[in-house]
Design brief:
- By secondary structure, the protein is α/β, with parallel strands linked by helices.
- The chain has two domains: 182 residues, FAD/NAD(P)-binding domain (3-Layer(bba) Sandwich); 122 residues, 3-Layer(bba) Sandwich (FAD/NAD(P)-binding domain), CATH 3.50.50.
- Strands 1, 2, 5, 6, 7, 8 and 19 form a seven-stranded mixed β-sheet that branches. Strands 10-17-11-12-13 form a five-stranded parallel β-sheet. A three-stranded antiparallel β-sheet has the order 14-15-16.
- The longest helix is centred in the C-terminal third of the chain and has 20 residues.
- The structure holds NADPH dihydro-nicotinamide-adenine-dinucleotide phosphate (NDP).
């Protein structure tokens, strides 16, 4: 297998990966970055980004990521297409296989592989992507001011997103498949006490409809029971909040991860349990999951990597 030795390898091309590449490039570390399955990361699945500082009119998400890529390249980052398919972090230099056909040996490694929102798997989720379907209320909620939206899920994320959306929207339906919420007590109470939120227990979404965007959801009540019933509910926006999956699978044999698979880092730093391996962005962040927080952790990871390599 073709083998190449690098000082610093960055895996992932969301805000964390590109910010790490900008800082590492400016520090003359000649970083090599592999962009992964979705160049530009999760943000490329949304439309306008209005909460990234420095863009008072908002910015097209793809443009923002292209700007970050260009900025990293300008400072000497070697940005390549390719997916990390295997890792051996038990040896030094660390060994990372790309696309099962090339071996990269790296003195330091920044993992910025992100996380993916879980979807229900409905064809209509793809059909209406960016046209009323979203997996991020903080990113897209603003577009639904005074409108009617539905959130799917019964955990803390769903309750948090429903509460947030209720502060903007006219009405929020929370679609919960069980007869109860799984969220923490305080979040449940917040949802139940909010007059704008109506919880639809024992409901599942079967599909969406609408001419030029989401106009409603096909619902089934008490799926599989004798009194199962189907009806349509008019909505303008459909938000998924049924969990995220961090892209940490190939590192799990070496790095400490929590029960959901997020890489555990030391306090507020991006340091993992292996010196020289750093985790930045959503792969290590079950809480904030924002472009700006990911970018900040990418910056920290690059500074840590520089200090590690100088030693
Ligand atoms: P969870 O796994 O806790 O909840 C997922 C929810 O989605 C559940 O209600 C689940 O239903 C539902 N769900 C899953 N798959 C489907 C499906 N196919 N159809 C319909 N519903 C489905 O994920 P969260 O993202 O809410 O939370 C992840 C972790 O992060 C948790 O530990 C949570 O406590 C934590 N968190 C903490 C926050 C805070 O402290 N502020 C904020 C957000 C998250 P069911 O119950 O039937 O399985």
């Amino acid at each position: 297998m073709e083998t190449e030795k690098v000082r610093l390898l960055i895996i992932g091309s969301g805000p964390a990966g590109y910010t790490a590449a900008i800082y590492a490039g400016r520090a003359n570390l000649s970083p090599v970055l592999y962009a992964g399955l979705q160049p530009g990361g999760q943000l490329t699945t949304t439309t306008i980004v209005e909460n990234f500082p420095g863009h008072p009119q908002g910015i097209d998400a793809n443009q923002l990521m292209e700007d970050m890529r260009q900025q990293a390249a300008n400072f000497g980052a070697d940005i390549r297409n390719g997916v990390a398919t295997k890792a051996d972090l038990s040896v030094r230099p660390f060994k990372i296989t790309i696309d099962d056909e090339k071996l990269i040996e790296a003195d330091a490694l920044i993992i910025a592989t992100g996380a993916a929102a879980r979807y229900l798997g409905l064809e209509d989720e793809k059909k209406y992507a960016g046209m009323g379907v979203s997996a991020c209320a903080t990113c897209d909620g603003f577009f639904y001011r005074k409108k009617v939206v539905a959130v799917v899920g019964g955990g803390d994320t769903a309750c948090e997103e429903a509460s947030y959306l209720a502060s903007l929207a006219k009405k929020v339906y929370l679609i919960v498949r069980k007869p109860f919420l799984r969220a923490s007590k305080i979040m449940q109470e917040r949802v139940m006490q909010n007059e704008k939120i109506e919880v639809l227990f024992e409901h599942n979404a079967e599909g969406l409809y609408g001419e030029n965007g989401v106009e409603g959801v096909h619902l089934v009540k008490r799926l599989g029971e004798a009194d199962e019933s189907h009806y349509d509910l008019p909505i303008d926006g459909f938000f998924l909040a049924i969990g995220h999956k961090p892209s940490s699978d190939i590192f799990k044999d070496y790095l400490e991860v929590d029960k959901a698979g997020y890489i555990v880092t030391e306090g507020a730093t991006p340091r993992t349990n292996i010196p020289g391996v750093f985790a930045a962005g959503d792969v290590a962040d079950p809480h904030y999951r924002q472009a700006i927080t990911a970018a900040a952790s990418g910056c920290k990871a690059a500074i840590e990597a520089e200090r590690f390599l100088m030693k």
